Fold:
Amino acid sequence: MSRYTASEIESKWQKAWEEAAIFEAKPDQDKPKYYVLEMFPYPSGKLHMGHVRNYTMGDVIARHKLATGHNVLHPMGFDAFGMPAENAAMASGGHPKDWTYGNIDTMVEQMKPLGLSLDWSRMFATCDEDYYGQQQALFLDFLEKGLVYRKNAVVNWDPVDMTVLANEQVENGRGWRSGALVERRELTQWFFKISDYSEELLSALDGLENWPAKVRLMQENWIGKSRGLQFGFKRTDGGEDITVYTTRPDTLMGASFVGISPDHPIAKQLEAESAEVAAFVAECRKGGTTEEAIETGEKLGYDTGIRVTHPLDPNWELPVWIANFILMDYGTGAIFACPAHDQRDFEFATKYDLPIIPVFEDPKAEGPLTEAYVPTKAEKVRYVKGFAGSAEQTGEEGVNTAVDKAEAEGWGEGVAKFRLRDWGLSRQRYWGCPIPVVHCDDCGVVPEKKENLPIALPYDEDGKPIDFSVPGNPLDRHPSWRDCKCPNCGKPAKRETDTMDTFVDSSWYFARFTAPKAETPTDLDAAKYWMNVDQYIGGIEHAILHLLYSRFFARAMEITGHLPEKSKEPFDALFTQGMVTHAIFENAERKDANGRTIYHYPAEVEERDGGTFVKETGEKVNVIPSAKMSKSKNNVVDPLAIIDAFGADTARWFVLSDSPPERDVEWTASGAEAAHKHLSRVYRIAAEAAAATGDGQGDDELLRETHKAIRDVSAGVESFGFNASIAKLYGFTNTLAKSKAGAKAKQEAAKVLAQLMSPMTPHLSEAMWDLLGGEGLVATAPWPVADESLLVEASVTLPIQINGKRRGEITVPKDMDKAEVEKLALAHEAVVKALDGGQPKKVIVVPGRIVNVVA
RNA sequence: GCCCGCGUGGUGGAAUGGUAGACACAGGAGACUUAAAAUCUCCAGGCCUUAGUGCCGUGCCGGUUCGAGUCCGGCCGCGGGUACCA
Structure:
């Protein structure tokens, strides 16, 4: 009998699929279309287990849909712009383009053996001139519709390297290469007007029923709609009013001071006038630009000397402070602080000795405040300085009362604000899509003409490869690329040297897949046929930015005529898989030459003497469990080793089994071998069934078990319960192995087993199908349907509980009525004993489930 | 800091508010074999000098319920996001 040899089977059937071209997607009006998409990878050059898990899940869906009669689009590409390529060029020479395309070749080579049902003919990379040229065309169309504009924004600035840093390049407030303290600096940059769509992006979330609730909630919080009061504080020096926005106007009588952002116009004016203010503002601008850095950094304040009057009491003066934790981007960049009811204001007031005036009290509590009292808006509190007398109100009611009063008296108005800021897309980098505009001394900022697209990245500089060892953006110092003619007046002009955020690249690739070679960004007919993405699969780490930006882009593309109306929400269903995690191994004894932590690969370390050590040097290693697999942390497991040893089906089976798809999975090497053993066993069982002859017993029972397996495995596949499907397949395999049924019955059951396994282990299933005389390819054979009449059970076993604890069980006919079941239960030995002749207080009978006797 | 998620045996995990630990990994015992590998069968949450089907048990504390891993409140721990990583 032939043995299971994965390498032979897998190459044989991959070739068969390719020859039959069954995964090439062509529009077909006679079949329902199904577009399944996994988030495309960054071409790091190394396929890791997270990729394998992600693509295998998508492949299970795609293959199941193919078998259930759908016309499936299942494409793959690469999110190929971005900093790692430039970092690599800086670290070890070479060119980002060569590095990236080399990695893409490597990754395609690593992916092909997995046997994914991908339409490779549609593959592209976002760094293809063809792709980013179309992206430039989109940019120009957006510009024309007013969806793009320029304004100032802050970036992380490294004063030693004289370059902009990404947040990840800022470590503890210092530049990762230079070690210099990072500053916030303002540059003029391009922005997408995503904030115009705040309300729509928020309300449309309700329609995304097949998205995880947690992703919708995360986006809702991110968009951050709030209702509040906007009003002006009058300056005692006669200057222009300071407009503030507050979500808690009910605390206005507890106001202690007015705070403005260091980037507020008043602060900027003072900065120009006073060296002291300039020094303070400069201090505020030290540190990174991330929300986290600003929130967790030390709270700093500076009393400007400006005084304002309280809107409800002209004799009440409040000081105006510049505070480093106030963001210019949110609200009006100015607040009033009520330290009694805001923890941050409380700390600030305590530090700078400002008054703390309670507005309301906890109806249940007493004593002076030692920290801010911050009840939720739904909680009832007793107002002592509110707007509705001393009534007990919820915060919500208090806010409404305050807004009503302000509007009635005409000194303020209720407004809605959003946390969502416009999307800054400018990056001061080389390896990205050039922003297709020209700066002309006479005409200003001029869009490139579409016929001049693509504005391609220059590969050389004066005939030599671009030098990435010099700090700064190579495009900035590339005269022959930078110098151009104004598309408007024809005079000498200069190109924009900023490139686009890589999130732009990934915000429309799903649309490009529907017509990857079109000479416009999309082909509307193809988009109408294939869109929307029926099932999108990717990591939860993309829950906010990528998915929100794509939703915005789909709307912008609809407005500019590149997508149909129905594609405003481009992803009908979303599934967020968990991450594949793995322990990190940190060298505990030394750092690298730049003082940074050294991370070791799993293969480089060993466990001994109760510790973990580097094999070669014997250095001690700190083990940090369950961290996201990340290239920079060197905790990436190589799936190719498993494929080499056991074959792709084993790797696929293994990543789907055990862990539920939405949960993180900690990678451990053990288990892959066991998966392989199981697949070998399945192959052997199929081979035995194929060779079997004669009659047996229990054909009907095997048939019933087969149909149960069809029902349960199908349900698992349809609901992303792949681990549940696999558990059922184990069970069904055991049943088949032990069955005494006749040859014909066993062969039919084994064929069903091959079909049910085919989305997960497609090669093995083809081999089994072939062995058992199945017609054609199992990949295209119609998916089996469970016969309901075979699934009905005649009797059911009910547990009997006494006071909620299991004390026995009874087996009764499935349809026995409740009274009859109760009678039987009360006659049960354990119940009789427990009642000891008395009457039960209560008997609960849940048909088909349980009986609980309360004694 | 803020937002989101997760926490069940030695391990991965199962369980529409209804028998906690399905299915598997690692482990143990046995069968087959000259032997090994492979394969097959069985055992397996913890506790106890009472081995009962007894008590305890789903991160911790409390609540709702006839009944809570599941729902609610409060903690603790871990992970993700935090707008220039992708």
In short: Chain A has five domains: 132-198+423-502, 225-417, 580-666, 669-790, 795-854. The radius of gyration of chain A is 33 Å.
